[in-house]
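Hello again, I could really use a second opinion on something today. I've been staring at a protein lately and its backbone has me curious. You're getting the sequence in one-letter code plus the fold written as tokens. I'd be grateful if you could look everything over and explain what you see. No rush at all, and the record is pasted right below:
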Amino acid sequence: MIFKKSRNYSVILSLIFVMTLLPIAKAEAVPLVSSAKVDIVQNTDPGQRILIIVPHPDDESLGTAGIIQKAVNLKRPIKVVIVTDGESSKMSAIAFTDNENPMPHDFYELGLERQKESMSAMAKLGLPKEDLIFLGFADGSIRFLWSDYWDNGKPRVSGGTQVAYSPYSNVYKPKIAYTGQNLENCLAEIMASFKPTDIYYPMADDMHPDHWGVSNFTRYTINALNLKVKEHMFLVHYPHWPSPWFMVSNKHESLLPPSDLKSSNTSWQSLPLDKNEEFNKEMAIRQYKSQMKVTAPFLLTFVRKNELFAVKAPIIVPKETSKPNLSPMNISHPLIVMNGGGLLNQRIHKSADIVKFTAFIYNNDLYLGLESLGPISNKVLYNFELRLFYEKGIKRIDLSLVNGKLRQVRKASNSIVESVITDHPIINKNTLWVKVKIPQEESLRYIFMGANVIYKNNLTDKVSWNIYKLEK
């Protein structure tokens, strides 16, 4: 179908966005991830010095508009950091420019517009413009900076503006190259100078790559600086959550956690909002006109009686005195359990659908285990990514299972170059085990770790990044 350039796309694009999140094919194979009542701590204090870090313009209003208002009213110091300008969304660019084939300059103009929308939104919440910081990194690039484009000599080119540096003049560091190290440096500088007591940022469980990427960068930086701060994580993109936003209005109801996150290493806090705070939050969200054109029903469902925040405890990796049996086709003592057969079940290879993840230490080796919905397949790429926090410095290990062979990949200058693979991978139907020798284990503070699977060159599932500590 071809639309004329002058056509208004808002209704069409909103419908496309909704349809991408609806169940497909066999409804019985697609369980809803509904919200559930769990133990939630009520919290009315936003903190003494508050730093909010979000991926895109509008995320700060969706997740923390109440926090911002309370901080302003209490005259607490607060800074809001927006990592990207959200300029690479093709749907938003089409709606903003009325051009069905947006060009790099269209994406650039969209970025400027979204900056202006953020300023307008923050004005509705009472936040001064000088407390809003744009970093200007490329929208849609954060997970790539985290995994593949870390070193400063290897920037990533934006998919929207087609440049490898920030083209905006009003960002924290104009012309900054798009690398992971540069992003981490910016966050470290801001944290060190502002000295926050409380940091709000996305959950690593979020399904949007920019969201879990910003989560990883934030948590990495906090721990690299060894900051003693309170961490509060919020969720935006998750299957059927907030539920069911596309069917009925949940306005003025409480926001509750997704049911499948209630038993993980996550505890929850709720910040109540009064009617005036709810109203101001809605007014702030409505300032994002470029986004309201394409996702208004989704955005407005975050106007609730509360805001919800998660706290992640470190996961303890047990030390085994006798080697567990690795031959069963299922993992008996998982550290993380995930939904299988969800939204993507009908679209992807079942072997690329992770349901369990675990780890243990035996005889000074680290064993990592994955269980998938289908048998481990040579058609799927399985990746394990580790950041090792030592008493002096941070190292990384990247492992990939390719065609049944485990490979150690050097992705950054701080990658461990000596081989850590001590044995062949163990594959038994649906389970995969890899055995890794951790260098200098005696000085290891903890491991920041995640895993993912790639099918047909697409990221299809992931184990959310968590802090792991080895059992003493």
Summary: Residues 1-34, 342-346 have pLDDT under 50 and may be disordered. The chain is about 25% helix and 25% strand.
